[in-house]
Design a protein that fits this description.
Layout: H1 9-12, H2 15-18, H3 22-34, E1 40-41, H4 44-50, H5 55-63, E2 67-69, E3 75-77, H6 80-83, H7 97-101, E4 103-105, E5 111-113, H8 130-135, H9 157-168, H10 176-187, H11 192-206, E6 210-211, E7 214-215, H12 222-225, H13 230-234, H14 239-242
Antiparallel strand pairs: 1-3, 2-3, 4-5, 6-7
Helix pairs in contact: 3-5, 9-11
Length: about 260
């Protein structure tokens, strides 16, 4: 029975792969190690939680085309055959035969979805070449949890919240309330760098200050920073920029 697991540099050094958050990249390796000899995983959601990844990381891997997820939760590493060259006489066949029957294998060895499968939450990609597949940054309009998502981008909720935690020493989670705020600003046209700038600006301006006797650091949280004052925070001049000429005018109160 084969146990060796490998990863192709053609996949792991591609721009599409390395531009993902480190948590998503690490989850790809974890899933690759846990998959059976034909690249199938029956409990990807549980494994992602066990390894400390978020549902966003799993969704991002599906969106970028590194994994295919079926509605019953079975997952397959799409480029498994490119990653792993196993001797056929040592392969233990997958138990997920029904899901395997829904797939074809293209000339590169990559799994592709059949055109007749409406229950699978991925678009038909039979006509895509290997290069197209790696460069395509979109998914069908059905997400992993049957939620509507934009097909041309994924909101990096976890990366934004993790950056806020890093800068403030807090432990906020990517809960729906925080995602809703981030999503609203994202839909306004703001991107990851804008969120980081807002966080940086307000950490500088509010550190060591009080608002009516309340430490300003209290307001360094998603419901304040990612509110409808986001644009003002984004363009706010920081004390670091103005140096000794900084004048405390009360700043822009977070309420």
């Amino acid at each position: 029975m084969a146990q060796r697991r490998m990863f192709s540099k053609e996949i792991t050094t591609s721009d599409l792969f390395v531009e993902m958050p480190s948590s998503s990249r690490l989850l790809y390796f974890d899933l690759g190690m846990e998959a059976d000899d034909e690249g199938f995983i029956g409990n990807a959601r549980m494994l992602s939680r066990a390894y400390g990844a978020s549902s966003d990381d799993l969704k991002l891997l599906a969106t970028k085309g590194f994994i295919i997820m079926f509605q019953n939760g079975v997952t397959v590493v799409k480029d498994w055959n490119l990653n792993n060259k196993l001797r056929k006489d040592r392969i233990k066949p997958t138990i997920y035969t029904e899901e395997k029957s829904m797939l074809t294998v293209d000339i590169t060895g990559s799994y592709q979805l059949g055109t007749q499968m409406p229950t699978i939450c991925q678009p038909d990609v039979n006509q895509m070449s290997a290069q197209d597949r790696l460069g395509k940054d979109r998914l069908g309009e059905d997400s992993i949890d049957n939620m509507s998502v934009k097909t041309d981008e994924v909101i990096p909720y976890s990366e934004i919240v993790d950056y806020l935690n890093e800068k403030t020493g807090r432990k906020f989670k990517s809960i729906e309330a925080n995602k809703k705020l981030i999503r609203a600003r994202w839909n306004d046209g703001y991107k990851l760098d804008d969120f980081k700038t807002v966080i940086d600006n307000m950490v500088i301006n509010w550190s060591g200050k009080d608002f009516n006797g309340t430490p300003a650091e209290t307001y360094l949280q998603p419901k304040t920073l990612f509110s409808n004052k986001f644009d003002g925070y984004l363009n706010q001049i920081t004390r670091k920029q103005t140096n000794k000429n900084y004048v405390d005018d009360g700043l822009d109160l977070p309420f």
